[in-house]
Write a structure and sequence with these properties.
The complex is a heterodimer of chains A (about 250) and B (about 300). With about 250 residues, chain A is an alpha/beta fold. Helices cover about 35% and strands about 25% of the residues of chain A. Chain A is built from 9 helices and 10 strands. In chain A, the strands form 2 sheets. A 6-stranded mixed sheet of chain A has the order 6-7-8-3-9-10, with helices on both faces. A 4-stranded antiparallel sheet of chain A has the order 2-1-4-5, covered by helices on one side. In chain A, α3 packs parallel to α6. Chain A is globular and about 45 Å long. Chain B has about 300 residues and is mostly beta strands. Chain B is about 10% helix and about 55% strand. Chain B is built from 3 helices and 22 strands. Chain B has helices spanning about 5-10, 280-285, 290-305, and strands at about 25, 30-35, 40-45, 50-55, 60-65, 70, 75-85, 90-95, 95-100, 105-115, 120-130, 140, 145-150, 155-160, 165-175, 180-190, 195-205, 210-220, 225-235, 235-245, 250-260, 265-275. In chain B, the strands form 2 sheets. In chain B, strands 1, 2, 5, 6, 8, 9, 11, 14, 16, 18, 20 and 22 form a 12-stranded mixed sheet that branches. In chain B, strands 3, 4, 7, 10, 12, 13, 15, 17, 19 and 21 form a 10-stranded mixed sheet that branches. Chain B is globular and about 55 Å long. The two termini of chain B are about 30 Å apart. Classes of the chains: A alpha/beta (about 250), B mainly beta (about 300). At the A-B interface, α2, β6 and α3 of A face α2 and α3 of B. Bound molecules: adenosine-5'-triphosphate and magnesium ion. Adenosine-5'-triphosphate binds near residues 29, 51, 52 and 96 of chain A.
Chain lengths: ~250, ~300
Amino acid sequence: MQNPVYRRKEANMLKIEHLAWSIPGGEEIIKDINFTADEGKLIVVTGPNGGGKTTLAKLIAGIECPSNGKIIFDGEDITSLDVTERAQKGIAYAFQQPVRFKGLTVRDLLELAAGGKLPEEKLCALLGQVGLCANEYIDREMNTSLSGGESKRIEIATVLAREAKLSIFDEPEAGIDLWSFSRLVETFQQLRSRGTGTLLVISHQERILSIADEIVVIADGRVRMVGPGKEVLPQLLADERAARCPLGKEELA
Amino acid sequence: MNKITEELLKEVADFKGSFEGAYNIREDGGCAGRQSTKNIQITSKEDLPGIDIHIAPGTKGETVYIPACVTHSKVDDLVYNDFFVGEGADVVIVAGCGVHSEGDDQARHNGIHRFFLKKGAHVVYKEKHLGTGKGKGLRRIDPVTDVYLEEDSVLEMDTVQLGGVDRTVRKTNGVVGARARLVVRERLMTDGDETARTDFDVTMEGEDSGVDLMSRSVAKGHSHQEFYSCIKGKARCTGHSECDAILSENGTVTAQPALEASHIDASLIHEAAIGKIAGEQILKLRTLGLTEQEAEARIVEGFLK
Ligand SMILES: Nc1ncnc2c1ncn2[C@@H]1O[C@H](COP(=O)(O)OP(=O)(O)OP(=O)(O)O)[C@@H](O)[C@H]1O
Ligand SMILES: [Mg+2]
């Protein structure tokens, strides 16, 4: 008898083992990082500026190569795969700093992300999820004429368009207005409620931290704290009050 | 008209087996078809090779096609075409040029186009250049475009050359009257051992005149491009030029933009950028699942669109 039900190979969508990375010929930035991210969960990575969060995201997406350690994705060791191969396996990454293109429109990018033509309704839905009105944006070029917040939201929408197994968002809140931010938080909650696909969100925002299934705190290239959101968040807030140091936490712009 | 001309016309002049409205097809220095309409009269020049195109005042919504093709080597075609566009006319002019060579000798088309726009006229001028064939002989297209814009007139020129032309020198000169505007969009791609030189020289003479030049180019292989522009402001006016070049493989580009203001209210801007495709652009598209080659091709395609 065949089992007709598709079985996932692992409950862990992502497993990071002893990951390390150094600046070429220089300092070690990521130092022995370990954690796992389960399928269908929302994992929030937080920690002070310069702690290594973006570097970790780049290592997962294949933009940087680790000096040590392993990245296991959906049961497969992907450490030696390049950016394209990892993308094709189902890793999507929304950059902290969106990339501008002279000559590529928002529609072009969303369709490249989705891997084919998209009907107007789908384009509308994707841009709506980041609080943008499709009519105004689909035929605009993703060039420097877009504001910081606009390009950031389009960058996020391209990752939503991928419908990937693992979606990484690097500080999605940065530069985004309050209304679009609320819409985005709803979007993350909706995606999580589907139970398929793992979300890894790098954020300093309490609103995002408060909906996390798991929180990973990265500081000085190491995991300083990790656990269920409900346990880690109160500790973070207590630390913050004790330290009276606002610098470790960026405000919503 | 021969088969090669027909194929070239499909590529450079939106030819679909026939043209609607006024047209003149030039083939290897001869005329392969002509039609005038009530508002657009095409006549042969008496003293020089070429034609005069008279567009009646107030003509609206018509398109005139004046493509030229060279279909074999050992042709050196020189032609003078003059456009007289009447007051308030609003038309599209399509002037594709294709040069085909299978031989060892040169095949060349040298088109000298002059545009005289009367008050309030509006012209969209589309020029597409293409070289085809495997002959060793060089394919050359050397267009000269002279534009005279009377008050309140607008000429928008769209010029595209995406491959196969071994040598090209493109000269565009303009004199812009009061409240008139010249807009030029150039897209250029060279490969192999091709060379391309672009020369813009525009003088804004009338109050509140304007010029906008945008050039986007890609230099691949061992090709070489030169971009020269000179925008002169002699009255209260606005001039803008922008030259963006992408380098690939061993392509080389020279850009020398010049601005000359001789009036206190002349406002002139130039922007120029030359470089290979930004690494982060390729990376971004790779994170969407494209290979490096696919990403490069897509970026170039969008850039030259
Ligand atoms: N290519 C590089 N060359 C030199 N230093 C680097 C490089 N990449 C990262 N770093 C350094 O590594 C450290 C971690 O950077 P990273 O961008 O990962 O921090 P982050 O946690 O994302 O910070 P933020 O919250 O400000 O976004 C920083 O000190 C940064 O300057
Ligand atoms: Mg960062």
